[in-house]
Amino acid sequence: MLLPVGDTPNPRGTPWLNYLLIGVNVAVFLLVSLPMMMSRPDLSDPLLLEYLRALGARGAIPVDAVLEHVSAYDLAVFRYGYRPADPSLLTLFTSLFLHGGWLHLAGNMLFLGIFGDNVEHRLGRLNYLLAYLGAGIVATLFFSLFVPGSNIPLVGASGAISGVLGCYFIWFPRNRVKVFVFLFPILMNTFLVPARMVLGFYLVVDNLIPFLLTQGGGSGVAHGAHIGGFFGGLGLAWALERAPGLLERRRSQAAFRGQAGEGGNGEEPSLGGRITRLLGLGELPRAAALYESLPERAERLQVGDEAVLAIGEYLVSAGGYDRALAVFRRFIAERPRSPMLDRAFLGAGKALIHKPRCIPSAYQYFLAALDVAKSQELAEEARMHLRAIERLGEDG
Predict the structure, then answer these.
(1) Could you read off the pLDDT of 97-128 as tens digits, one per residue?
(2) Which residues form the Peptidase S54 rhomboid domain (predicted)?
């Protein structure tokens, strides 16, 4: 058995929204689900007949058989769980807070507790709540695509939590997960495993392979919902990673057009040579605006590595952290074999430490800078930032 029990590093502060989601799920189970599991159904409830028919019951059914095998909670799940054959907006949400039993609840809350705090810290509380609910809806709808006529209700927070895992996969690739390995009596110990290995195992081995083997249905576990939620989280994180860069590029294009208009010469901007000349003249704001206005990758690659990094480092020093981050991220994506890649990772980390809720992401970039460092000075600077972040975590 492999069981995740924690992760590192964790953000500073208290993940109140994550705790609230865990609390609501546990409270619904203790105060609503559990008492109803121990209660008999109302035999006069018209939903009971529909429920029995959905399960394939035919003809007259003895009352004793009904009372022995059906609880009040079974009817509640049938009413408030999401049934693809009878979809509703209400059950899209209510199904996310119902669970089939203790183990179902405990497994979901364990994963939410481990991975949710980092994602909440990155998104902020309101955005995290919207992302959680949105991922749950995407997961449920994805699942229903493969069983559109099913009357078996889907319940559980696992689709929404899978969305959280997808975000974590994108944003915290260098985090490590504490995994308890229980192979009695051979091995019983805890190991630190790269987060992407753990989440990749969850996606492929725990869900994708069973999903393909059961052709999208026919299993007691909603693998399709887990897959849909995970890819929904991946898509959200991927889009948010690039959104600041797109916005900053539009702003810088407008800024450059304004500067050109003030100059009155109407010249079209040249590429690497003009940017390098502006840097040499100390015209750092204009050089940055010109570089950011280049819309095509091929044009940006005509600008030398040193010039691009100088622009990014200037933007950090000037407080343009979003703009600097966009410059460094493009450098990393477009120049993966550059001998100056370590400076780009370091610069991205330095930009992120000034942004709210981005300390865990900054930690990832400093680790990357340390991995590819070409000089002892840069490696030591990366270590300094890593130690500072670790001290923040200890103080928090």
Answers:
(1) 999 899 999 999 999 999 999 999 888 889 99
(2) 89-240
The domains located in the chain, with CATH, are 2-239 (1.20.1540.10), 268-395 (1.25.40.10)
> DSSP letter at 303?
S
Buried b (16+ CB within 10 A) or exposed e, 354-374: eeebbbbbbbbbbbbbbebbe
User: pLDDT at position 212, please?
Assistant: 85
Which string of DSSP letters, residue by residue, matches 159-189?
HHHHHHHHHHHHH-TT-EEEEEEEETTTEEE
Output the six-digit token pair for 274.
């003009």
Distance CA 233, CA 294 (A): 30
Question: CB-hemisphere CA count at 13 Å for 298?
Answer: 0
What is the Cα–Cα distance from 157 to 165, expressed in whole angstroms? 12
Residue 70 to residues 37, 43, 77, 114, Cα–Cα distance (Å): 9, 10, 11, 35
Q: Tokens 């630190």 belong to which residue?
A: 192
**DSSP structure string for 73-85:** HHHHHHHHSB-TT
Strands (E), the chain: 2-8, 176-183, 187-194
The pLDDT tens digits for 149-202 are 888 899 999 999 999 999 999 988 888 899 998 877 777 788 889 999 999 999
Which class for 132: exposed (0-12), middle (13-18), buried (19 or more C-beta within 10 A)? buried
Q: Which residues contact 121 (CB under 8 A, 6 or more apart)?
A: 11, 13, 15, 357, 359, 360
- Residue 373 carries which side chain, given as an amino acid letter? A
The two structure tokens encoding residue 189: 């110990």
User: Where does the pLDDT of residue 253 fall: very low under 50, low under 70, confident under 90, or very high at 90 and above?
Assistant: very low
Number of H helices, E strands in the chain: 20, 3
CA–CA dist 55, 59 (Å, integer): 13
The whole-angstrom separation of Cα 201 and Cα 381 is 34
The model scores a pTM over 0.85: no
Which residues face 191 on adjacent strands? 179
β-pairing verdict for 2-8 and 176-183: antiparallel
| All residues at 6 or more sequence positions from 119 whose CB lies less than 8 Å from its CB, including other chains | 128, 131, 164, 167, 168, 171
Q: What percent of the chain has pLDDT over 90?
A: 48
